[in-house]
TrEMBL record:
Name the UniProt record assigns to this protein: YbaK/aminoacyl-tRNA synthetase-associated domain-containing protein
All copies of domain YbaK/aminoacyl-tRNA synthetase-associated, residue ranges: 96-224
InterPro entries the UniProt entry points to: YbaK/aa-tRNA-synt-asso_dom_sf (IPR036754), YbaK/aa-tRNA-synth-assoc-dom (IPR007214)
SUPFAM superfamilies linked to this entry: YbaK/ProRS associated domain (SSF55826)
PANTHER family in alphabetical order: CYTOPLASMIC PROTEIN, YBAK_AMINOACYL-TRNA SYNTHETASE-ASSOCIATED DOMAIN-CONTAINING PROTEIN
One function term, GO molecular function aspect: aminoacyl-tRNA deacylase activity
């Protein structure tokens, strides 16, 4: 039975891959339009306003900010139990290194008067985007922020730690494994790991606002819209 189940999973991934390849040969504007139509048709009401869905809302945000080369894809509920290779295949990503995640950090040593994200140079919170294959180094972020403030703030006032899930959800509006930098509830400053900017091709995947929704986006378009700090903050 286990062998049969595995065979069914492999066949499903192959069919997804064939579908992705077919779409990739369509003109870009047609492919994107088809993707949005398919998503709408899959809903309980095909005539529902796309702006009421996460995909529709985030697509509108990106399109309003000159975003053109992006894609949303639904994944199975057990996606995070899969290997990185299996995730790569179902998304049609170029490699496992193109699979990224967004994590919310909190500065636990910020003084009492620093409670929000109004000062992007010395914010209480930051969102960091890193590859799944990389090892995040919080110390490099600490050193970057210290230098960003020209050493005027003591290093003791920087201690970047993973924010509690409930805090992350409240600030971003997204659940764990669904966090994305697009359309967050709070304008949290973003740090993009430098390694992502060196990926070839320059199109990476990250959370799409829901646990089973993923967003693929051209790196330049992501940078132009999000305007992140680009920091070497990871190792392999």
């Amino acid at each position: 039975m286990e062998a049969l189940a595995e065979l069914e999973r492999v066949q499903t991934r192959i069919l997804h891959r064939i579908s992705d390849l077919e779409l990739s040969h369509l003109p870009q504007h047609f492919s994107h339009s088809l993707s949005l139509q398919s998503s709408a048709a899959a809903g309980a009401n095909a005539d529902a306003d796309a702006s009421t869905t996460t995909e529709g809302r985030l697509s509108a945000v990106l399109l309003a900010n000159s975003g053109r080369d992006f894609s949303f894809k639904r994944v199975p509920s057990d996606y995070y139990e899969w290997t990185l290779e299996a995730r790569r295949d179902i998304l049609g990503a170029a490699s496992i290194h193109h699979l990224c995640k967004s994590i919310v950090l909190v500065n636990t040593q910020a003084p009492p008067n620093v409670t929000d994200c109004s000062d992007r140079n010395y914010s209480k919170y930051y969102v960091v985007v890193v590859q799944y294959t990389a090892r995040f180094n919080a110390e490099t972020v600490k050193n970057f922020l210290y230098a960003l403030n020209n050493g005027k703030i003591s290093k003791k006032k920087f201690n970047m730690r993973l924010a509690p899930e409930e805090t992350s959800a409240k600030l971003t509006g997204y659940e764990h494994n669904g966090v994305t930098c697009i359309g967050m509830k709070t304008d949290i400053p973003v740090i993009l790991d430098e390694a992502i900017t060196k990926l070839n091709p320059d199109f990476f995947w990250l959370g799409g606002g829901e646990i089973d929704l993923k967003l693929g986006i051209r790196t330049k378009e992501f940078i132009d819209y999000v305007k992140p700090f680009i920091v070497n903050c990871s190792g392999s």
